[in-house]
Amino acid sequence: VKVWPKKKIGAGMRLDANVVWGSTERASFERGCLRLDSPDGAARAAAAAAAAMKPKSALVSHGASAEAQAAAMAVEAGLMAQGVQVFDGGRAVLPQLRTQLWMIGPDAAFYADGTCLRVMDAQGADLGMNAQRSIEQQLRRQDYGRAFAAPACPPVNAGRSDLGYIGTLADDLPEGWMGDARPQAAVFANSEGLLSLAERALEKAGFSVRAEWEEEMMELAPGETGVWLSEDGEDMCLADGNGCLTESQGQLMRVWAALEMDLGPAIVPMGATRAAEELAARYGGRIVRVSGERATFMRELLAADRRLFRLWFDGIFAAAVCMALLRKHVMTPAEWAREMPRLARAVRSVAVGEKDRSRVLGELVAQEEEPDMTDGLCVSRAGGWTQVKPSAERAECRIVAEAADSETADELCAFYERRIRDLLKKNQ
Q1: What is the C-alpha end-to-end distance of the chain, expressed in Å?
Q2: Is 135 left (phi over 0), alpha (psi -120 to 50) or beta?
């Protein structure tokens, strides 16, 4: 191959194409996704994952775009070339893919969405750091086996994943929660496929649904609950005529749902609102805090109860459960919020380059008497609680503080923001 002048090649990387434009850096995961630059890159990524994970079978689905479909077809080719039995799940959203994965039972799942490939284990959780590094190394060195060294199997059509998803959602809702009346819901999603899936699933579960793909049409009528779904379908936000619930209220509502469903200890990420403990005490329940790192959190939820996982990573299911519970207790989201424990929450972000992250966090830890390093730096003081955590997506550190009043929460945020800025200045 030819490498043009002044191009950067990652250490130990084996090239199979000319490097003319840009650079060939180490392939890496970001939030569980492996970056893709082309369909042939997707095929190589799939071959590397097959070599590292050694699955006998895998489910492959993709997003709505033609680019995502092309990447998925390349992934299927890469897996087949390594002797993996492929189940073609077609177009889907992530919660839909996971439901199909649980029903069919293959060893792994791949979700292609444009320029990224999400690789999941047999339970639908993101891969841990060790598994991610193994795939990165295989991809960089191209240590996977020669194509078709093992017998290739034709792909199998996995069937209508939307129908399976709709059926399981209705089955997982306890009977008798909503009574005879049909609760009214207005649902918004950017994706046409996700919106259609949500409308049909909620209708099947017993709701009266108004689906909107234009956000300006989401003005809520009296008695109507609004549902805003994230683009990937994993998250949701509830609203009524008084506005949407905040991030911390959304976390607390999931804890409330887990306690109402009697799913055992409510598992929450370390950065979730501290009001969860007070709420659990009302029910005689218990809160278990785990690392907020995505793969770790997913595994903890799946090990406890699959419905707990769906509360945090299936927006349609979470919305259905929470709206059914609100109906059971004859409350709107705003009325529910007034009944819940209250803590003021403040959030700030400070720009911190990747080369400074470890040093800054290490020096912050050294300044604390009893730091908790389960998920970033967590500090509890008499006046409140603070978390300082590097962002997985941006070159910054996120500061989250909670206290009994907003003034104290803001002061805690400002205190750690000043500390970080002082540490950055010290080494300039």
Answers
A1: 42
A2: alpha
Contact residues for 62 (Cβ-Cβ < 8 A; gap 6+): 68, 69, 71, 72, 90, 91, 92, 111, 112, 113
- The reported pLDDT for the residue numbered 309 is 97
* Cα distance between residue 378 and residue 156, in whole Å: 48
Residue among 349, 371, 385, 348 at smallest CA distance from 273:
385
Task: Write the CB contacts of 10 (distance below 8 Å, at least 6 apart in sequence).
Answer: 24, 25, 26, 140
Cα dist from 23 to 5, 8, 18, 20, whole Å: 11, 5, 11, 8
**Residue with structure tokens 């009574």?**
179
Distance CA 57, CA 90 (A): 16
Distance CA 109, CA 121 (A): 6
267 exposure class (CB count in 10 Å sphere: 0-12, 13-18, 19+): buried
Closest CA to 239 of 250, 230, 227: 227
Residue 108: C-alpha distances to residues 49, 50, 55, 58 (Å): 10, 9, 6, 5
CA atoms lying within 13 Å on the CB side of residue 428: 9
Region of poorest pLDDT, from 69-78, 229-238, 362-371, 404-413 = 362-371
**Which amino acid is it at 347?**
V
Question: pLDDT tens, 132-142?
Answer: 999 988 887 77
Give the span between the Cα atoms of 212 and 239, in whole angstroms.
15
Q: Is 232 exposed, middle or buried (0-12, 13-18, 19+ CB in 10 A)?
A: middle
Q: Are 225 and 323 in contact (CB under 8 A)?
A: yes
Tell how far CA 149 is from the center of its chain: 36
Q: Do 222 and 237 form a contact (C-beta atoms < 8 A)?
A: no
DSSP bridge partners of 201: none
Residue owning tokens 């209708």: 203
For 295-320, what is each residue's pLDDT tens digit? 999 999 999 999 999 999 999 999 99
Q: Using one digit for the tens of pLDDT, what is the confidence trace for 91-143?
A: 999 999 999 999 999 999 999 997 899 999 999 999 999 999 999 888 877 77
Calculate the CA dihedral of residues 173, 179, 180, 183 and round it to 10 degrees: -70
